[in-house]
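Sequence, please.
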């Protein structure tokens, strides 16, 4: 009786493991619709290179793939497995399956406080704001619509070009003038409902085009004329490794 109960428990754990594994496999297939080879480890390897979030699970998932092969391909008889996962392993793969099936939203890694400036603000106000802020990128808005991204480099270039006799006249100068001294910065706008995997795809698209996506501004619906809720830079992607909660 006890032996039969143990077999049933092992069978239930194995089934839960397979269900979670298949959910993860489905996510990997969805992320790589054009891949002819849909073997789990192959898709995992491809996805891990493109997605830091998936890469954070790479070691565990590769080990789980070996266990899954033993479960599926090396059964000795009905309801009997050459190897069965323990409960901790099952809980871990189920946790990963949940996270990959419903990835965290982008606001998880976005800088929530976005210091914005208006194009009509004086240069003096801009300088004071930049001096008291710990940030080095500032979205400039014309009324309520995004105009350009201001950096310390753009301000420095403007200051250098306006030195006359060792002095800089800030009278009547506004932030709008700084636009001409900024390099072209690639900025994208996304909805707060975008998830981490979609965000990583967005950065990858720019990379494939040999462009650098310097900032992603998060708004309610992804519109450039909405109030910014957060801002994400390439450096923020590093925090994705910390999202295993």
């Amino acid at each position: 009786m006890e032996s039969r109960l143990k077999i049933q428990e092992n069978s239930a754990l194995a089934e839960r493991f397979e269900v979670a594994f298949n959910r993860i496999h489905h996510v990997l297939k969805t992320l790589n619709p054009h891949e002819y080879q849909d073997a789990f480890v192959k898709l995992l390897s491809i996805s891990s290179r493109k997605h830091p979030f998936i890469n954070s699970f790479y070691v565990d998932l590769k080990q789980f793939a070996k266990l899954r092969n033993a479960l599926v391909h090396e059964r000795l008889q009905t309801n009997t497995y050459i190897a069965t996962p323990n409960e901790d392993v099952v809980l871990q793969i189920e946790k990963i399956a949940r996270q990959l099936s419903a990835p965290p939203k982008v606001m998880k890694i976005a800088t929530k406080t976005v210091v914005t400036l208006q194009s009509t603000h004086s240069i003096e106000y801009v300088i004071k704001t930049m001096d008291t802020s710990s940030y080095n990128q500032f979205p400039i808005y014309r009324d309520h619509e995004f105009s350009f991204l201001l950096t310390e480099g753009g301000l420095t270039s403007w200051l250098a070009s306006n030195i006359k006799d060792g002095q800089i006249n800030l009278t009547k100068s506004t932030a709008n003038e700084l636009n001409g001294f900024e390099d072209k910065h690639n900025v994208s706008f996304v909805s707060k409902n975008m998830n981490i995997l979609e965000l990583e795809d967005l950065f990858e698209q720019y990379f494939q085009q040999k462009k650098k996506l310097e900032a992603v501004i998060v708004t309610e619906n992804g519109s450039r004329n909405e109030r910014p809720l957060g801002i994400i830079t390439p450096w923020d992607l590093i925090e994705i490794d910390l999202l295993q909660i």
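The domain at 108-242 is CATH 3.10.580.10 (CBS-domain).
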